[in-house]
Every structure is written in structure tokens, then in C-alpha cells.
# Entry
Amino acid sequence: MNSITKIVPQQAKLLDKDQQFVWHPYSSLSAPIPAYEVVSADGVYLQLADGRRLIDGMSSWWCTIHGYNHPVLNAAAKSQIDKVSHVMFGGITHAPAVELCEKLVAITPDGLDKVFLSDSGSVAVEVAIKMAFQYWISQGQPQKSKLLTLRRGYHGDTFAAMSVCDPETGMHHMFEQVVTKHYFAPAPQISVNESWDEEDIAEFSNMIATKKDQLAAVILEPIVQGAGGMRFYSPDYLRRVRELCDQHNVLLIADEIATGFGRSGKLFACEWADISPDIMCLGKAITGGYMTLAATLCSDKVSRGICEGEAGCFMHGPTFMGNPLACAVACASIDLLLSDDWQGNVQRIETGLKTQLAPFTELDAVAEIRVLGAIGVIEMKQPVDLADIQKRFVDAGIWVRPFGKLVYVMPPYIISDQELTTLITGIYTVLTQ
# Structure
């Protein structure tokens, strides 16, 4: 457990101003939860202003896969910033963007040949949905304007993304009256390593067959349903979705923002089912957590279908699209990932999580333990008190950010076995208090 250093006046003043002026994500201004000031970060550690040092079990919402302050990524950022940090992407190109798009096409599933860059995961989803709609408009089938997705899913916080998040139990259910209405199939029930039963996809199969004339696309998170519940489902389900989309002339959008770049144990989660979507969304770990950047990849069929339509182009263009600084860091991050034994590290983390989380099943408050790749999930029987449990985790020297009933970890791939043990031991200590 970290020793607690007394908060100095300067730090107290900053925290007071934070509460006065700053609105943090998913936070209440009427009942604010205290924030913790980070002054530096290195490897898997966050250094707090009060002297405490925390092992980050969250990879800063799943993106800092190489850890913090990595010399290779630092060098890429420093080199690029002396050349050009930003330039508009309309009518202008540059080496970092071209190199990044070439790399993404090379490492993603076959058939994803074109890359549209943006600046956040939610926007990547917006772009994917817009691509699907414009594709069918360009094909003279504007009636194909609905989406089919899965319950328990999460795709982002912007409006099109919210419209395909779970409409009842998801964090955006309160917007049900103002978002576009789409179709929701039951969440898959068969897990990754369980025997396949066609009944698991029966309702989805019926829905896509009966709604095919209205459906532009199916959108889902392959294999791992992330912020909607941290659930893992069978590759056979994903494989059958691909087959049904082909059968009924519906596009398939794979949201790999959380799973891309190795998190599930495959470089991309679609590889679990050996399928390629028509459109794929990437974000989070694309720059190793250094810069905000996202990408939406699509097939030649989709890109040509859009550009040969009435508009003659895809009707979208973010201001910071193709930011050179972010693209340069992303190129370095991908090279770093592929040159390292990322698969061995993720497998090592998975083994450690399975072993060390097993005793949690004996705790009365725990409902279920789930592990896949570098993802460990402790589902509680009741929602946790975030303010209380967050303080306890910090006092234990770890940074873990639960939501609802879920206490989960997605550590950086560089975490050592000893650091992983410290992380899981800290969680166990807090949950047994």
C-alpha cells in the first residue's frame, strides 16, 4: 500500500479549481467525485501529485498498450512536431497519413482496402454508419436506412453511435426518445470456448431475413461486447452473422475500437472467426494512447459504391482528419507492436488473470469471472459505490475504474508478472474489505 503524502496548498488549489471549472466524463456536478491529480506517468505507473504511485490497470481506457512515456513513441512525436503538427487534409497529403493507411490495410482482414481517418472512436462509428447509408443511397436503394445490432452493445457517445447502444440497459437508454430507432437482436449467450448451438442466432437470423429490405448494415463489436457489459461471445456467432449478411445483401460493420491491436489475443477480434467485415472501425490503441486518432476502413465495393453515386464523393470531412502528429505516432506504435512479442505478452497476461482471478469466485459479492486476452472482468452481484471503491483502490496503489457491477482490468501489454500480481492482489484486498 502506498504511503499517503499530505496534500500541499498548491495541489489543493488545483483540485478546487478542477471542481469549479471542469466537467469530467460521466460525472455529476451536483455530487462530484474527487479527481486525482496525475503529474507524470511512466511504464505502467501513474504518479500522483501527493506522492502516491499507482499501477494503471485500465491502460487509460484501453489505449496505452505500450505503457506511458515510451521512448520510441516519444521520439516519433518529437520528430514530427518539428516538421508539421497539423495541416488540412482536403487537397493535401503527407507521408505519416499515407504510411499509416498503408499499414492499416496490410494488417487488417483482407478486403479492407480504403481508410478514412478521423479523430475519435465515436466519430469512426458515425463515419461507418454514414458510409453504409450513403452506399445504399448511391445504389438507388434509400429505403435501406436502418441498422441491426445486438443488445448489450456499446458504440460511443455521439448520436448515431448512441442509436445502436443497448436501448434499455445501456448507459444511453435515457435518449431512447430522441435517437433514430433501429433493430436490436438478443445478445449472444454462448461464450468463446463453449459448443455452438444454432439457436443462439435464431432470432437474429429471423430479423435480418424479414428486415433485409430496410437494412443498410449490421453493426456489432466482434467477440467482445465492451462498455455494454464486458461480455465475450462465440466466434461461431460472428461467422454466422457474416454469412447472413452476405445472404441477405446487408453490409457488416465491425466496431474494433476496443478490441483492435491485440487486446483479445488476436490482432483484430474478427480473426477469431476468420471473417472480414465490409467496414471496420478502429481507435483507442491506434496511437498507443499518445494522441486522439481513429480510422474507418472499408472494402473497395463500399468505396466505389459511394463515389459512383450522386454526390460523387463521401460526404464527410473532419477538420483534424489525418493529423500528421497523430499519424506519425500511430505508425510508430504499430511498428512497435508488431516488432514486439505482443501475442506472447497478451497470452502471459491472460494466463495470469485466469490464475489470479479464480479465487474471486469464492467471494459472496462476486457473480462471475471472465477472462479473454488482456481483459479480466469481475462481475459483482450489486453495483459498486464508485467514489468509495475508487478511493480504496488508490489507497491500495492501483488505478481501476469500475462501472455499474463491473470491476475490470485491461492493463498495458508491458505489465510484468509482479506488477500484475500487485494489481490483482490490490483488487482482492479492496473487494474483501
Residues 74-339 form a domain with the Aspartate Aminotransferase; domain 2 fold (CATH 3.40.640.10). The first strand starts at residue 38 and ends at 42. The chain has two domains: 9-69+341-431, 74-339.
